[in-house]
Specification:
A hairpin with a 4-residue loop joins strand 1 (33-38) and strand 2. The protein is an alpha+beta fold and 162 residues long. 40% of the residues lie in helices and 14% in strands.
């Protein structure tokens, strides 16, 4: 039996990078999106606004910025750094007059206590209003870094909050 594979029209859908149904629902709202992505070594958060000729990044923050500007030296991909990245992007968003956003997790499976939700908590603590369920946010002790031996995160947080 010869079965033909169904051709998928959009390259990003074929590669499993974009769920266009979810994206369309987010874009219909007209509210900027808080996009959080975690790679193997870093965490990036951006506030993105839709425009017909292409999305525009309003503000962005990542762990590289925490390292260069705020003195982060240790781990770059954990719950605490995700929280700090969210806090930083939230502070920048308020400067750019962005008060509301919607969380865009992309094709990631939403799981409780994920890095995405730590960054969400950081943005909410900074003052950006993002609708969410408080049950998905990681425990406050994990966000403070009490489970880690390194105590530099409190110093970095105090610099970000300034």
């Amino acid at each position: 039996m010869n079965r033909r594979k169904k051709a998928v029209a959009y390259r990003r859908k074929r590669e499993g990078k974009t769920d266009y149904r979810k994206r369309l629902e987010l874009l219909k709202s007209g509210v900027p999106r808080l996009v959080v992505r975690a790679s193997l070594k870093n965490v990036r958060a951006q506030i993105i606004e839709y425009h017909p000729d292409g999305d525009r990044v309003i503000v962005s923050a990542d762990t590289h910025e925490l390292m260069k500007k705020f003195g982060l030296q240790k781990a770059r991909r954990n719950t605490v750094t995700a929280y700090l990245v969210g806090l930083l992007v939230g502070k920048k968003a308020l400067v750019k007059k962005v008060a509301h956003a919607i969380l865009d997790v992309g094709i990631q499976t939403p799981m409780k206590n994920a890095l995405v939700y730590a960054a969400l908590k950081g943005a909410v603590d900074a003052g950006v209003k993002v609708p969410h369920d408080p049950a998905i946010i990681p425990d406050q002790k994990r966000l403070q870094g009490e489970h880690l031996k390194v105590s530099e995160f409190a110093q970095v947080k105090s610099r970000v909050v300034k």
